Amino acid sequence: MIKTVVGSFDTFSEAAAAARDLRGAGFLDSDVNVIANNTRAIGREEKAVEEKSSGTATGIVAGGALGGAAGLAVSLMGLAIPGIGPILAAGPIAAALAGAGAGAVAGGLIGGLTDLGVNETHAEFYAEAVRRGAALVTVRADESRADEAEQIIRRHGAFDIEDRVLQWKSAGWKGYDPKSEPFTFEEIERDRTLYHAAPRGPAAEIGRMENS
Fold first, then answer.
1. 208 pairs with which residues across the strands?
2. Cβ atoms within 10 A of the Cβ of 52, count?
């Protein structure tokens, strides 16, 4: 039985490190995907350009150092998904999202996740997480290695998506809306500050779906 394990991260660097270790543990490149909101990187670049001194910008190059740290730089693809905003994607899902019509609707990411075996309800949670600035790692694993994949993802700080959804709802979130506007740089910074300090680690709920 093949299972899809999904981890949600507050930062791209955490997700990239998890992807690196999954590959280092022998999981195939064709079974590992990374999807990350890129608004913060773009926002920081723009801010750095505005504040540059001596003609030298200090911002992060989107997909540069972070992608390289995970060996992803050559495969990272920049995309824009309506309702979610600019993202970086690596792995088979990148080609799927870039396919004809895949990114033309806000449901493009949800469709990409459900194609990987994620149920639609959780796909909506994960899409909302990306809209709010998060990064995802998915890995297809044989049932015998699913626990190992989960342990690697937990070790790199995946947060509990169910707890995060409860936090969103307590702040007024009514559920995933494909017509929602993408989060701005400021909104993502606010949410990251609010949620990044939440308890994570061993108690984190890692999504695991069976593939037929």
1. 5
2. 12
Beta bridge partners of 86: 80
Total Cβ atoms within 10 A of residue 189: 16
Sign of the CA dihedral 146, 151, 156, 159?
positive
Task: Match 């723009």 to its residue by tokens.
Answer: 46
Torsion of CA 5, 10, 11, 13, to 10 degrees: -40
Helices 161-170 and 120-131 pack at an angle, to 10 degrees, of 70
3-state secondary structure of 183: coil
In this predicted structure, the answer to whether residue 195 has a pLDDT above a threshold of 50 is: yes
What amino acid occupies position 97? L
Name the more confident of 103 and 113.
113
* Every domain of the chain and the residues it spans: 2-211
How many CB atoms sit inside 10 A of residue 25's CB?
13
Spell out where the chain has E strands. 2-9, 32-37, 77-81, 85-90, 135-142, 207-211
